TrEMBL record:
UniProt enzyme class: hydrolase
Lineage of source species: Eukaryota, Viridiplantae, Streptophyta, Embryophyta, Tracheophyta
Ranges where the record places region Disordered: 350-394
UniProt source species: Cynara cardunculus var. scolymus
Annotated protein name in UniProt: glucan endo-1,3-beta-D-glucosidase
Signal peptide location: 1-25
MF-aspect GO terms: glucan endo-1,3-beta-D-glucosidase activity
Gene3D superfamilies assigned to the protein according to its UniProt record, in alphabetical order: Glycosidases
Amino acid sequence: MADSHFSVNLGLFFTGFLFPVLVSSVGINYGQIANNLPSPEHVVPLVKAIGANRVKLYDADPKVLKAFANTGVEFIVGLGNEYLSKMTDPANAQAWVKSNVQAYLPATKITSIAVGNEVLTFNDTSLSGCLLPAMQSVHTALVNLKLDSQVTVTTAHSVAILQSSYPPSTGAFRQDLKGCISPILDFLSKTCSPFLINAYPFFAYKADPKQVSLDFVLFQPNAGIVDPGNNLHYDNMLFAQIDAVYAALASLGYKKLPVQISETGWPSKGDENEVGASPENAKKYNGNLLKLINQKKGTPARPNSDLNIFVFAMFNENMKPGPTSERNYGLFKPDGTPAYGLGFSGIAVSSGNSTSSGSSSPKTDGPSIYLSPPANSSSGYLAISSSTVSFRSH
Ligand SMILES: *[C@@H]1O[C@H](CO)[C@@H](O)[C@H](O)[C@H]1NC(C)=O
Ligand SMILES: *[C@@H]1O[C@H](CO)[C@@H](O)[C@H](O)[C@H]1NC(C)=O
Ligand SMILES: *[C@@H]1O[C@H](CO)[C@@H](O)[C@H](O)[C@H]1NC(C)=O
């Protein structure tokens, strides 16, 4: 019976020791704004340990793309905001695609290129003006190289592009951005590419912890809310945010555009004024989220669409600027041990010494990984990664 099968597996998932974990279709963001991360070869088994089959990068780090060759893991590679104006030139775009995408195919399964991150909410009109032309140049390069049927071109937005998101049925884009968003949606629709959104219920909670229910943002049992616009019932904020995006897309005539959550997560540590940032809450958010993804159900407004979610992030990133939370979104610490107990990871970081520092210290015959000392993070190609990752501020 399906139900008991599920609960058995779930038990294993949360106590931990099996490999691989059954979670399906999980994506993970692999940010590298740090000087102490393990080398990419050592990250491959960690990605597998959390059951992720999709990885999103903020650049096209050749070391990562090589390390993941022939692993079956799918990649979204990124082109940082500082490259947008350059990429509006088709020759530059073609050169970039050749050396950063084509060179790794088909061994590394690059399926998408995210051009820019949260560009429209920087309110920088000259940057925003480059976005669609850059996406078009990159797409044209893919067409020229006959890669357009296997690699899509998109861009990731912040939920702050929404003017209205609550109740979800009233979801609408910021009025001043509509002129910019519509042609991008048209491009995505014509090229069969997904709409990417970064969504952090943490920010809503942090901004107003007295009004926002912690259970509602952490996917814990709660009464939830009913959307008076359509009578749909919501018991978590992430689903409400996703459906607000669907409503905003529908209001511009793009009902069928697939939505992917390119980032969501919860920090395990924050500054004193960052209410809610704790290992307990991060564990609840990400643990409950992984459970939901595994149930293969959609949101109330799109019950039949798979959740397509990239958790943020693989590692704590010690060189990110901003509040303490920014450096503490990782599921893993840089040494490869779990940042908090989700149950899945002690296995992956054993160095032959069963007293590993994870929350669980399983004795295992599983993969034994020796995590090397801090890697030299300069990757020697277009150095895209620094300063481009969003601060996800609303
Ligand atoms: C961008 O502009 C919008 C609308 O005017 C405003 O609400 C928002 O705070 C601005 N964001 C930033 C980062 O300046
Ligand atoms: C395992 O780690 C512990 C604590 O770091 C250390 O005291 C012990 O000597 C290690 N054992 C082996 C076999 O390396
Ligand atoms: C990284 O490697 C480069 C080239 O080998 C070297 O010049 C640089 O000093 C190294 N940086 C660090 C932080 O070790």
